[in-house]
Amino acid sequence: MRTRILNAFDGPGLSRHPDNGDAPWMRGSGRADSENNIVPAAVLVPLIERANGMTVLLTQRTAHLKSHAGQISFPGGRVEDSDLTPENTALRETEEEIGLPRTRVELVGRLNERKTGTGYHVVPVVGLVTPPFELTPDPGEVAGVFEVPLDFALDPANHKFETRIRGGVEQQFYVLPYQDYHIWGLTARLLVNLAEALES
Questions:
Q1: Is the pLDDT at 118 greater than 70, yes or no?
Q2: pLDDT value of position 66
Q3: 182-195 burial by CB neighbour count: b if 16+ within 10 A, else e?
């Protein structure tokens, strides 16, 4: 699986399937682009190299957060002035949120950039994580951390669709139900994108 993943990406800071130009990567302490009101952000897609098979590490956000409260997500967040690249943002936010040292992460490339309905332009950074490591989740942001078998996440049979009506508009989105977790929205879409990248 390691070789398959490395072959699917072009290396740290690179995307084999670049975004369609929705918005550029922007620096600056989470400041929104004045024209598009978009906040630049990045997440880490951590793939854990377990002895019994690779897994994907996910977090559940605390219920009191202003944005995406209680949702399943990848570790990550908005850009700060000190972040020179999306990789810097993803690794810094991961250390802050769950205590995963960046020295345990081998960056391999990026998935497609995404804009969210809440105004973020997200760069997903893929990294291979080598155990052992200890996590120390920030209780102010993270309610829990768990792993999903990568084989489960890659299986198209687990890529479900749900439809909701918001503001009178029908919206359809991916959902990956796993045990008691309801993985949906951007996180589910990125997992589907990961599956697509590994199949191409």
A1: yes
A2: 54
A3: bbbbbbbbbbbbbb
Task: For residue 6, give the nearest of 153, 128, 131, 105 by alpha carbon.
Answer: 128
20 or 75: which leads in pLDDT = 75
The yes or no reply on domain 2-150 and CATH 3.90.79.10 is yes
Domain ranges for the chain, please list them: 2-150
Q: Which two tokens stand for residue 55?
A: 């897994």
The predicted structure's pLDDT at residue 26: 40
pLDDT digits (tens, 9 = 90+) for 124-161: 999 999 999 999 999 999 999 999 999 999 999 999 99
pLDDT reported for residue 163: 85
